[in-house]
Amino acid sequence: MPDPVASPATQKAPRKLSQAVVIVHGVGEQRPMDTLRGFVQAVWSHDPARAPFYAHVADPADPAGEKINQSWITPDSRTSSYELRRITTPYDVDGRRTDFYELYWADITQGTTRSRLAAWVTNLLWRKPADIPADARKLYLVTLFAVIVVLCATLALATSVWQGYMSWAAGVLVTILASFIIWSVDRFGLPYFGDVAAYVRAEAATVEKRALIRDRGLRLLKRLMMDDTYDRIVLVSHSLGSMIASLADIVGRFQAPKTGGHPRQGQTEGDPRHRQGDARFRRFRMAGQAGRPRRFPA
């Protein structure tokens, strides 16, 4: 009986590279997917050098115009929201596919009151001028000047009323001016700076909102990190989103105690898949600490 011949060792085909890009939007009345769509159009859709020729398609918004790079919007359960979708690209000229996600948090910071916004502004104005960053001093001075003008006008109005110098015409003018100021605060101040006041001040009314935002971000990053599809994760943030995604918040709290990784159910710390996730996290963490801008995609 002939000796059995050992079959040649099977070699696995090299895994194609894929990356996940998470967008963290900024302040304002943001709508789901708005920031994500704009970012994808800027870094992918209108950069023909990034995609092979067969991925160039007609622009649905302008069929007769220049072609754009192909992408798809698909449902995804990682964000735990039916309002959000994943935007997927084909493999680019470097052989890498990209999935874009959005960390949406604007719904959590809704409901900021005028008193909370005023408390935040007051806290900023009471700081020492030396503690104000150089790039924010102009805004600090403008805000301080506006507050002084409002206080002086209020004092002059109160003095005129107390001494009986206020005419009915002046009363109507003051009423219109006060209504305009209140409308401006509700229309512009609360939608933009209300998000900041609801997140940066740790007080009884904001602690729960801060925790909900961090938990949502951590949950999304954990799900992406444990997905073997991705060899790297890129975190992009803007405005207040940079603070939410900073090392002191989501990224800083991402590393689990001792191991730095998050084994999935049924895995142990020695599991190869867990070690791969831990390695991906270390690359992700070091990229965030470096803080150097990089052209996307690398």
From TrEMBL:
Residues 258-298 are annotated as: Disordered. The chain crosses the membrane at residues 139-159, 165-185. Residues 270-281 have a biased composition (Basic and acidic residues). Keywords: Membrane, Transmembrane, Transmembrane helix. This is Uncharacterized protein. It comes from Mesorhizobium sangaii.
